[in-house]
Amino acid sequence: MFASFLVNTWIVATIVAAAAGVVGFFVVLRGNSFAAHALPLGTFPGAAAASLLGINPLFGLLTFSGLGVIGISQLGKAGRPEIATALSLVVLLGLGALFLSMSNEYSQATYALLFGEVLGVSSLEIVPVAVVSAVSLALTALLFRPLLLNAVSPELAEARSVPAGRTDILFLGILALTTSAAVPVVGVLLVFSLTIGPPSAARALTNRPVRAMLLSACLSLLTVWASIALALRLGWPVGFFVGGLGALAYGLGRIRMECVRSRRCRARSG
Amino acid sequence: MTRVSLLLSALFEPGWNSSEPVLTAVVIGGGAAVVSGVVGVLTVMRGQSFAGHALADVSSAGGAAAFLLGLNPLLGFLLMGVIAAAGMESFAAHRIRERDLATGVVLGAGLGLSALLLYLDVTSKSTTGAAITVMFGSMFAMPPSVVPLALAVGGSALLAIALLYRPLLLSSLDPALARVRGVPVRLIGLCHLLVVAFAVALSAVTVGAILSTALLIGPAAAALRIAGRPGGAMLLAAVIGVAATWGGILIAYDSYDWTGGHGWPVSFCIVTIIFLAYLAAGCPARGKVRAAARPGKAGVQAAGRG
Amino acid sequence: MRGESEVLAVQRLSVSLSGRRILDEVDFALHGGEFCGLIGANGSGKTTLLRTILGFVTPTSGRVVIDGGHRLAQIGYVPQKIVLDPAIPMRTRDLVGLGLDGHRLGLPLARRARRRLVDAMLEAVGATSFAEQRVGELSGGEQQRALIAHALIRRPRLLLLDEPLANLDIKSIATTVSLLRRLALEYRMTVLLSTHDMNPLLPAMDRIVYLANGRAATGRTEDVVRGEVLSRLFGEHVDVIRVHGRILVIAAGAGNGASADLERHPDHVVQVP
To answer: What would the pLDDT profile of A223-240 be if each residue is shown by its tens digit?
Structure first.
């Protein structure tokens, strides 16, 4: 389980989980779940395009996640955000189909992009993930208070001179950055599940914002470590365990929140 | 075994009317577009685009399971879609943030299951094309045996929309008002999601998860920008969907000539047409915003266009 | 109250939104420590006026002058119908703290000075007892206090509140009004509060801005709430009656059009067919 060829796996999973947990805290608070799914999935044609042009896939991924952010925010001006997200996603995936048709032997790579190949990571692949994750962690910490106030109420934030539109785009940018670098290494599914499962449990466990964000990162780490351990033990894909544990975390969090609320209601009426 | 190569082999035949796979694609794609367009209008109105997309992705896990067990793929898609719809609805909450989160969690778990089943597919049957099929569908690889079941599923989805139309509309516009009128809002919501699961499973198995989302959301969103009444929007969405599907197939077929041999994939062509239709539908709407500022008039005007 | 300097001057302000005239040459000024009610029916432009004062809406003509420095630094704002999400992990104390430094970069560190300021503000609005509770799970009246504390902690010279009395029960309405009156005196702060019923404000209000048909009648309460002034504003004859310390405005319906106009009037207007 801790063999030398797996060291990279543990390192990269830890980095990705920490970043996903922290950024995911705001995904859950702001209700950006669809974007958190669409942005990493929409980077997929970027990888195909990069392999077609023979450039570093990271550039392709970053370009297409940038296109995703632009699409979601520009289309969102005229219509509802979830429609903007859905349309941006299908257009990007349509482009993916086009690029895929141009380069042939790609089906194994598609599986990897969707579900991850976390058990075969090279040291060279870790560096960009680590750098990009560090940048998005720093940005999230820097923007913590404006993001939090904007999540509570965009109007209150405006009155504190935090512009709502710019905050939305900035956060989508952070989300795109965090997920796109991680996608080629751990896959869309793993990033997405870590972005929403652990944070939704963390918000139920404490009333303090900073503590909830840190807790979210911790739960995310626990989820990914447990998933890798289980995957190695049983020989099944990591993504299956991350998805399942994420759902479990969400379910337990929801139950706890309902319990607290009903207890408070009873206390108030009694 | 990819759809692309199948498309190519289909398109090598001269004269697209005589090619049987293309004809099947025209019929099945058109049918999926009609069902998706009609169901999509209410999905967009209820703000459940994410659920519509997630159901397509999750039902693909059923496809992988069916492949493993050697069942009819449509049955697998349907079963998984229904389970996912029930899962989403059991977590349901009235806040949009919470509803999207529940959708996302079910999607994550479903994709995880998908990963496992595809992995088992690969290890037990040693095929690698399964992931491609899951995402991009196989419009040209549909066995004719699926057609009767597909017809039944599409027909029952349309029938359910016709039956649920009024209570569904009322509970989308104002849940409190609907409850006063005696509409069981939760049950209606669940029924709607099941209908979406049916429509999406049908299109996911025939045209793939990408096109399924595109056909569900795109034509409906475009139609709702133009038409004022939901009924008119449904009709318009079905027309846009079918036009985009057939136009896409035609362009993909034609593109073989001017791209020097490899052609454009159908899904790319259809998605592009749908997207352009959505943008075009927004252009008159932008001029209409000014007129819409006068309350009362906008509704009449918009309804007149539908 | 007259000797105080002018805090807010709204000068011949007109606002059009998507081609429709919302405000038409609205003109008034508020001085330090004044408590002003912004009265009008739903859709009369109250929210637009407040948002224009905040700088969220650009006027088509006229201007808003705020005394001294940056606009948003001088104004505290409690928006309309805010529903705080109970799923957000945030205590009352955290929301009030964000009022102080929600626009700053970096994580909120637990400095002693910040904590003292927050504690004092919670105490001033009577929110100490639920300071540690999750703000989304509080009752409507409690959330209102938290939001007032959030708006006040930077000691603005002008406090804008958009329909703060809607959705409150009668007792909470009275407590909120007297709380605001007390805070206005204590902090020498000008309050501009919008509502569709002026009666709960009568004991506290020393000035009034009465909006109808995009125009405004402004002045001291007893000067504005008079038959001839309001008749001119509404464009139809109305009578003002004072009974048991309440004000009723009676509109003698103008034939068939009267019932259609009913929705344009604030709650204290009685339509007589």
So the answer is: 999 999 998 898 888 889
Q: Are residues C159 and C57 in the same domain?
A: yes
Same domain, C167 and C253: no
User: Is residue C60, in this structure, part of any structural domain at all?
Assistant: yes
Whose tokens are 């899904």? That residue is B267
CATH of the domain at B94: 1.10.3470.10
Give C70 to chain A, closest Cα distance, Å: 11
Partners of chain A (3+ Cβ pairs below 8 A)? B, C
Of C20, C85, C87, the CB nearest to B293: C20
Specify whether the CB–CB gap between B154 and B35 falls below 8 A.
yes
Number of structural domains, chain C?
2
In this structure, which topology does domain A4-191 adopt according to CATH? ABC transporter involved in vitamin B12 uptake, BtuC (1.10.3470)
State ipTM.
0.89
Token pair, residue B40, equals 């999509």
- The reply to whether A200 touches chain B by the CB within 8 Å rule is yes
Query: Which residues on chain C are in Cβ contact (under 8 Å) with A143?
Result: 105
- Give the A:C interface size as CB pairs under 8 Å: 102
Calpha distance A104→C9 (Å, rounded): 69
Q: How many residues does chain A have?
A: 270
Task: Examine the domain organization and report whether C81 and C111 are in the same domain.
Answer: yes
**What is the span of the domain harbouring residue B148?**
3-305
Q: Where are the beta strands (DSSP E) in chain A?
A: none
Q: Does A157 touch chain C (CB under 8 A)?
A: yes
> How far is the alpha carbon of B34 from chain C, nearest alpha carbon, in Å?
36
* Interchain CB distance below 8 Å, B112 and A30: no
Claim to verify: residue C130 and residue C256 sit in the same structural domain: no
Give the number of domains in chain B: 1
CB B176 within 8 A of CB B31: no
Q: Pick from B81, B90, B106, B72: which is nearest to B196 by CA?
A: B81
Examine the domain organization and report whether C52 and C165 are in the same domain.
Answer: yes
The set of chains that have 3 or more CB pairs under 8 A with C is A, B
pLDDT tens digits, one per residue of A165-215: 899 999 999 999 998 878 877 788 888 999 999 999 999 999 999 999 999
> Which stretch of DSSP H or E encloses residue C29?
strand C20-31
Q: Which domain range does residue C31 map to?
A: 6-224
Q: Is residue C230 part of a domain?
A: no
CB contact at 8 A, B264 and A101? yes
Which member of C99, C106, C139 has the closest CB to residue A144? Answer: C106
Nearest CA in chain A to B286: A78
> pLDDT band for position C66 (50/70/90)?
confident
Of B95, B97, B290, the CB nearest to C19: B290
Residue boundaries of the structural domains of chain A: 4-191
